[in-house]
Specification:
494 residues; mitochondrion; EC 2.3.1.-; 7-stranded mixed sheet; 2-oxoA_DH_lipoyl-BS; globular; dihydrolipoamide branched chain acyltransferase activity; alpha+beta
């Protein structure tokens, strides 16, 4: 009995020992876990704090991504065609850097950046249609308190044309210092109508003074004039033979025809689309045509005398300034030709300003910029403005301010080689003239002798609903009189 009891106690002792060891192992494991886990937890927390600080620093240095939207450029334009990108994804841009060029049915527009940052995304391909109020690009802006996200609103046309300094008609930069802006405000001048001659198109004080002088008829001081105007061309050497000069001039390059062998269909865009609408509306007008010829012999002699004087002042003098000024003098006597009618032809508006347009053949197609307030300008002022418009036309930089607001139009088909034409009225205008090339033809003088004369054909079209043939004929006779006797223009110049 004692042996059995002793054996049972031995078995019980072993069981208790094993259980005790198991419990001790569990306690040690728990203690070990409790001692290691807080260290692991503190290490993970440090990593989290480090990573959060790193992300915070990265967000501060890189800045937010802002959607740069196409703002309203006025004239009721709701869509444009992207003609060219000046940046690509990953490029760094600064404020006022050009982003892209877009083209509406009225003008070409250069869009510039309002932020410093990196281009992250381009929303459109070349020749794609971009919508007003929709994003053009995504810009990852640089950090700083000056970074303000663009609001999700479309600017009003007034702000887009006058106050917004980051979007401008191409060639009409609105970058200016506060002093220049104050000078413009004091003289009631819109910066959108002034062409800057400073770096990157910045408007200078001299540009404001020049614009003001042109509007008021004031005389610009010679020193200021020399700063604004381009230097005259270098005179040709007299010793250079004419044959050498002719040989040095390369012949005009003739584009070779391209035969693709298949039909190509593409949508009408930009200016071509605008021409469809304008000409469709124009052909609803009953046109009245009138043709005549003008003897420009005296004008040819006068221009040859004045051309060197104009070139010395940095301006190329053609015949067009005389044609335009003579038209303005004639419109003073026949204001019905400088009018417009509403769509239903129920009301007529006589325009106070003579904004005479000149049809130009450009790479973008037929464009008609106009010279504003010709009734206030001299022949030299008109020539200076035509030089500017022609330079913008060659560069494809004619903007809305140059292409809108016309009241009367002249089309110089003679520059290409035409003689007669049947010009189409540009509504809401009511008259237009087409000028042929100047030809040396035999004519009889007062004594009956045959003499060479410089003859130009002119073709007029008028809205026959409000303009009769007699009025058009009388205007043409007065215009011809001014050009055949250019000295008579001095009596009516103001």
């Amino acid at each position: 009995m004692a042996a059995v009891t002793r054996g049972s106690f031995a078995v019980l002792r072993r069981l208790l020992t094993q259980q005790y060891r198991r419990r001790c192992f569990r306690l040690q494991s728990v203690r070990c876990d409790r001692t290691v886990q807080p260290l692991a937890f503190r290490w993970d927390r440090n990593i989290q704090m480090l990573s959060s600080r790193t992300l915070h620093i990265a967000s501060v240095s890189r800045g937010p991504i802002v959607q740069f939207k196409l703002s309203d450029i006025g004239e009721g334009i709701m869509e444009v065609t992207v003609k060219e990108w000046y940046v690509k994804e990953g490029d760094k841009v600064s404020q006022f850097d050009s982003i892209c060029e877009v083209q509406s049915d009225k003008a070409s527009v250069t869009i510039t950046s309002r932020y410093d940052g990196v281009i992250k995304r381009l929303y459109y391909d070349v020749d794609a249609t971009a919508l007003v109020g929709k994003p053009l690009v995504d810009i990852e802006t640089e950090a700083g308190p000056a970074v303000i996200p663009e609001e999700d609103v479309v600017e009003t046309p007034a702000m887009a044309r006058e106050e917004h300094t980051h979007q401008e008609i191409k060639g009409l930069k609105t970058q200016a210092t506060p002093a220049v802006r104050r000078l413009a405000i004091e003289n009631n001048i819109k910066l959108s109508e002034v062409v800057g001659t400073g770096r990157d198109g910045r408007i200078l004080k001299e540009d404001i003074l020049n614009f003001l002088a042109k509007q008021t008829g004031a005389i610009i001081p010679p020193t200021l004039f020399q700063e604004i105007q381009t230097p005259p061309p270098a005179p040709a050497t007299a010793a250079r033979p004419a044959s050498t000069a002719a040989a040095a001039k390369p012949p005009p390059a003739t584009p070779r025809p391209v035969f693709t062998g298949k039909d190509v269909t593409e949508p009408l865009k930009g200016f071509h689309k605008a021409m469809v609408r304008t000409m469709t509306a124009a052909l609803k007008i009953p046109h009245f045509g009138y043709c005549d010829e003008v003897d420009l012999s005296r004008l040819v002699s006068l221009r040859s005398e004045l051309r060197s004087i104009a070139e010395a002042r940095g301006v190329k003098l053609s015949y067009m300034p005389f044609f335009i000024k003579a038209a303005s003098l004639g419109l003073l006597h026949f204001p019905v030709l400088n009018a417009s009618v509403d769509e239903g032809c129920q009301n007529i508006t006589y325009k106070a300003s003579h904004n005479i347009g000149l049809a130009m053949d450009t790479l973008q197609g037929l464009l008609v910029p106009n010279v504003k307030n010709v009734q206030l300008l001299s022949v030299f002022d008109i020539a200076q403005e035509l030089n500017r418009l022609q330079a913008l036309g060659v560069a494809g930089q004619l903007g809305t301010s140059e292409l809108s607001g016309g009241t009367f139009t002249l089309s110089n088909i003679g520059s290409i080689g035409g003689t007669y034409a049947k010009p189409v009225i540009l509504p809401p205008e009511v008259a237009i003239g087409a000028l042929g090339k100047i030809q040396v033809l035999p004519r009889f003088d007062a004594s009956g002798s045959v003499v060479p004369a410089h003859i130009m054909k002119v073709s007029w079209s008028a809205d026959h609903r409000i303009i009769d043939g007699a009025t058009m004929c009388r205007f043409s006779n007065l215009w011809r009189e001014y050009l055949e006797n250019p000295a008579s223009m001095l009596l009516d110049l103001k």
